[in-house]
Amino acid sequence: MPHRLASGPPQQRLEFVGTFPSGTCTDSVLKSGCMTCPKLSHAGLIVLVASCLVSCIEANDKKKRLIGATAAGPTNTGTGIVEGVVTMEGDPAAPEPNLQSRIPKDCPDATKTYGLVFREGPGRRVGDAFVGVTGYRGLSTDPGGVVPVTASGCAWNRRTYGLSVKQHLMVRSADDRPYVPSLIGAKSAASLIAVPHGDAVPVFPKGPGLYVLVDEMRNFIQATVLVVNYSTFDVTGLDGKFRIQGVPTGESKISAYLPAANLTVEQKVKVTENTTTRVELKMRFDATAYAAHSAAATPMPASGGFASANTQ
């Protein structure tokens, strides 16, 4: 039986108005003139709406639209597979010095997971990148179900999770610590405790958008959660690999987004029915530019709270 805690005050939510994150925020947001969005540092993920203008929020609420992956035109019924790898060029991942002092010595996995700006595997392969295929003429099926999250050593097993609109997270503790998962951006009547080696507890987003999964007991445990209204996406492991099935045939766009470093890359792809199309996506990290953006980012309030925003 999951344990419950009384909930805190309602928290803000930021929705994407667009098909996929790109550039400094999202292509569609910038083109619409709705929002200006600074580069997000690792710490800046927790203050997602700190610099959003009130007029932008109000306009977004009036539109109430989230554009999916489908382009206009005749629908293609055949599907194929897109798979490949995401690699990194440029500078190596910079350390997160402010984080080290917050991690207890008995949390070895936390240092491994969060000690650098982003995670790399052998051959500079990028972990935790959200890879999506959009812009096709057709419909992708939404399988629903759950996305598992494992907590161990004071860390989530990923720094990025992808969900379709019919999915939710199931968080379980795989060590001797309790965890209290909370999704910043989604209101909840109560917080559930994932007890040590116990049953997984559900965490529900509130529709498509960008969220942050945190542990209320240890706020350095964080992961970006992207909820989209299509299913043609995958999240890379430390091998940098992705495999996306059920992509409608024809011309489309494949994009990769690394939230921790706010890096994006995209290119066109042509999908053939019953065929696997291989793609290699390369990102470039500039440590100097990242440090400059991090220094300019809005700091988190000393109380540990979150920047307020009216999104009702």
Summarize the structure.
The chain has helices spanning 27-32, 54-63, 97-100, 108-114, 287-296, and strands spanning 3-6, 21-22, 25-26, 79-90, 120-121, 125-126, 130-134, 145-151, 160-164, 167-173, 181-184, 190-193, 201-203, 209-215, 218-228, 233-235, 241-248, 250-258, 263-271, 276-285.
Structure overview:
Helix content is about 10%, strand content about 35%. The protein starts with a strand and ends in a 16-residue tail after the last helix. The strands form seven sheets. The protein has a four-stranded antiparallel β-sheet, with no helix packed on it. With about 300 residues, the protein is mostly beta strands. The chain has one domain. It has helices at about 25-30, 55-65, 95-100, 110-115, 285-295, and strands at about 5, 20, 25, 80-90, 120, 125, 130-135, 145-150, 160-165, 165-175, 180-185, 190-195, 200-205, 210-215, 220-230, 235, 240-250, 250-260, 265-270, 275-285. The chain has five helices and 20 strands. Mean pLDDT is about 75; it is low at about 1-70 and about 300-310.
Low-confidence stretches: 1-68, 298-312
Shape: globular
Give the distance, in angstroms, between the N- and C-terminal Cα atoms.
33 Å
The largest beta-sheet arranges its strands as: 16-7-18-19
Strand content: 35-45%
Order of helices and strands: EEEHHEHHEEEEEEEEEEEEEEEEH
Number of DSSP E strands:
20
Helix content: 10-25%
Number of domains: 1
- Largest sheet: number of strands, sense, barrel closure: 4 strands, antiparallel
Tell me the structural class: mainly beta
Radius of gyration (CA) equals 19 Å
Helix tally equals: 5
Mean pLDDT: 77
